[in-house]
Design a protein that fits this description.
The protein has 6 helices and 13 strands. By secondary structure, it is α+β, with helices and mostly antiparallel strands.
Length: 215
């Protein structure tokens, strides 16, 4: 993804407040070289943050007529208003080793024996994982194929299919669960059962007085 940033000359609380009043977001780019103070258009950034790829891929930032590769490192939102207050990016290149959270995309759940045959409930225990890899290898997401998932089975981090050079950070846990399967309770089975609409009553013959009224 590509976005445009502008050089920011003024710093401090007052300057940042004036930027926000002008629908701009103050930010910083750090990493290789000198940190750069930047500002971005608020509305464009707000909608970019809604896109999954903006959080988990290498981005192309245009700044002062030059293009740099960066990754999103952090951003701050207003406590209760839809306003981005500040954003941080890190410069990267093909040799930069990064640690980043990437989302998990679960596919073929409805075709798994656990769901299709045994009517089980599939629990997505986690929806993202933190990985370490070179910036050039950073995936937008990891796909988790649930087509062979069966009753009583669970999937762990070790079951993820990773490209060479990509490692999942487990924060000291041996092999965390990412998907588990449980049987539906009686109440859940009732709630999941399709509702069958009652057949409309057959139209009977009009009564004698109804025929007379129609004449």
């Amino acid at each position: 993804m590509k976005f445009v940033a502008y050089e920011r000359k003024l710093q401090g609380t007052g300057a940042s407040r004036r930027l926000r009043n002008a629908q701009k977001v103050p930010g910083i780019v750090y990493g290789a070289g000198t940190p750069a103070m930047i500002e971005l258009d608020h509305n464009a950034l707000f909608f970019a943050l809604k896109k999954e790829a903006f959080h988990s891929t290498v981005l192309e930032m245009e700044l002062a007529g030059k293009s740099e590769q960066v990754i999103l490192r952090d951003y701050q939102m207003h406590a209760f208003r839809p306003i981005v207050l500040h954003i941080d990016f890190q410069r990267v290149d093909a040799t930069t080793k990064v640690s980043k959270k990437v989302p998990l995309h679960f596919v073929n759940e409805e075709n798994s024996p656990a769901v299709k045959t045994d009517k089980c409930l599939v629990n997505h225990v986690v929806t993202d994982v933190q990985i370490q890899c070179l910036a050039s290898q950073l995936p937008e997401f990891l796909t988790v194929d649930l087509s062979n998932l069966a009753r009583g089975q669970s999937l762990h981090v070790s079951d993820l299919k990773l490209a060479d050079g990509i490692k999942v950070v487990t924060h000291g846990k041996k092999d965390p669960v990412i998907v588990s399967v449980s049987m539906l309770t009686a109440e859940e089975e009732v709630a999941a059962a399709p509702v069958v609409a009652a057949a409309p009553a057959a139209a009977g013959k009009p009564k004698k007085d109804e025929k007379q009224n129609k004449k």
